[in-house]
Specification:
Layout (H helix, E strand, L loop, with lengths): L4 E6 L3 E2 L4 E2 L4 E2 L2 E2 H9 L6 E4 L11 E3 L7 H12 L4 E6 L7 H10 L6 E5 L4 E9 L3 H9 L5 H7 L2 E5 L5 H4 L5 H11 L1
Parallel strand pairs: 1-6, 1-8, 6-7, 9-11
Antiparallel strand pairs: 2-3, 4-5, 8-10, 9-10
Helix pairs in contact: 2-4
């Protein structure tokens, strides 16, 4: 599986709510992105960062700037898949410090070739930025961007996809942290 998979972490930009690069917010004394990389490394060392920020230069991974800027996560995924040389691509947002190798392994092992996208969802929430994306859906993403249809859920509706159902309790590991308050809640929940 390793040779056929590339991982792209969407580093987004400055978070207005966090006042810093989202992926570099500290959690348990390490930036979010380092927690995520640690979860990926047992699976693959093929990791690339989608970012225009120099702040990630300390990490030894290739950095790629958005081909079309200001298109949100969809633009990041378009950039990732356009640069990818593998059919299957693990796409992760940079703000999920609790993601585990086990969950990523499950995602990868259950992805089927028929699915253009495989993502996790619980009854209350779908997690489009923790997913396997096939390179073959690039034209669909490009046309969505061209018509400014940037919602991730709209993309899912246009592509043959697979939803892996998880328990509500597992949402915890997939939580994206958007604000200092959410980070505090996380620290409290874990202590």
């Amino acid at each position: 599986m390793e040779t056929t998979l590339t991982t792209f972490i969407l580093c987004g930009g400055k978070s207005s709510r966090m006042q810093s690069e989202k992926g570099l917010v500290l959690f348990q004394e390490k930036p979010f992105i380092e927690h995520i990389i640690k979860a990926i490394l047992p699976i693959t060392e093929q990791i690339k960062l989608i970012t225009a920020s120099k702040e990630y230069d300390y990490l030894p991974y290739e950095k790629i700037q958005d081909i079309i800027s200001d298109k949100g996560p969809l633009g990041g995924i378009y950039t990732a898949l356009s640069h990818s040389e593998t059919e299957f691509n693990l796409i992760l947002s940079c703000d999920i410090p609790l993601i585990s190798t086990e969950l990523l392994t499950e995602l990868i092992s259950k992805h089927t070739e028929e699915a253009g996208i495989t993502v996790f969802a619980s009854e209350s929430k779908t997690h489009p930025l923790i997913g396997i994306y096939s390179k073959k859906i690039v034209p669909i993403i490009k046309s969505a961007i061209d018509s400014d249809e940037l919602k991730m859920m709209d993309l899912l509706a246009k592509v043959p996809h697979q939803i892996l159902n998880i328990e509500e309790s597992e949402n915890f590991h997939l939580t994206n942290i958007n604000s200092a308050d959410e980070l505090n809640d996380l620290n409290i929940n874990l202590s």
